Amino acid sequence: MKTRFINLFVAGLLSMVLTGCGYNQFQSLDEQTKSAWSEVLNQYQRRADLVPNIVATVKGEASFEQDTLTKVVEARAKATSMQVTPETLNNPEAFKKFQAAQGELSGALSRLLVVSENYPNLKANQGFQDLRVQLEGTENRITVARNRYIKTVQDYNVLARSFPNNLTAMIFSYNVKPNFTVDNEAQISKPPAVNFEKK
Length: 199
What we know:
This protein has helices at residues 2-20, 23-59, 66-81, 92-116, 120-124, 126-161, 165-171, 185-189. By secondary structure, the protein is mainly α. It has a single domain, classed as LemA-like domain (de novo design (two linked rop proteins), Up-down Bundle). The longest helix has 37 residues, at 23-59. It starts with a helix and ends in a 10-residue tail after the last helix.
């Protein structure tokens, strides 16, 4: 009887210690970050799926700049060839490479859309305009999904760094997760140059 009481007491104490130290909260937030990351990947895949249709439509404009199209196709190939797993969330180097590849595709698509403004036939093409609207909607969805991911990672990282939860994080190897960053952070932190002189 006494042994059974001691076992129940130890089990209860262990349960209180584990819940009081944030273990369950780590489980919950870890799953939330994985879910938010899946949504980011889903939206990136949606964008990647639009690219071949956009390229095919633009190729119909015979005089369109081949270099711009090539960069879009290469950026898409690079972005979609990366193997992304849940472990990517815990590997800052892999996360950075993934982010760079997606940034390269974003830049290539932006250049393509800017250059397309110079081609009246393309601007008048309803199929191209529909694809452009879909791409803009997808870019907005990517922004929303990334913002949700950033928030869940922030919550997770605050938990991982807060006392006494940081002790649980050390024991169970709950490392701080990498988050999205801005590539040109130094450049955008500078105030823009404004010149009011008449030319």
